[in-house]
Amino acid sequence: MIGYLNLTLRLAIWFLLTSDLSPANIFIGIAVCFLLPGLHKTPSALTDWLRVFWEIIIAVPQAYWEALQMMVSPHVQEEVTLERVKPRRTPGLIFLDIFLITFTPKTIVLKYHEDGWYEVHKIKRG
User: Fold this and answer.
1) Membrane-spanning regions, if any (predicted)?
2) Which of 10, 27, 88, 95, CA to CA, is 20 to 30 A from 71?
3) What DSSP state is assigned to residue 41?
4) Long-range contacts of range 62-68, CB-CB < 8 Å, 24 or more positions apart?
5) Average pLDDT over residues 66-92
């Protein structure tokens, strides 16, 4: 089941990058998804995937709220923090975590450290 989620994530990214749903592009996208390494190497739980998708749904209104806050009051303080990667994360889940952090306007992931840390840049009110 999880292999299908990884494949679906890769295919969705392919379609977002190419913006083409022609039969030839679909075939090429499926071929590329299968040729990329690491599809079945790292097991992950379905609950981890569902939790990340739920967090993405929650992040949409949060992103609008943060954008409104930034327009109303200035945010002049900056800080760079290290956040721990959640345990048992596959590369697909790490990608979605980075997407989730970067999706909101006040935070962006600067770097992913291989030893299990995200370097996150945050802005705050003055």
Assistant:
1) 12-36
2) 95
3) S
4) 62/104, 63/103, 63/104, 63/105, 66/104, 66/105, 66/106, 67/105
5) 88
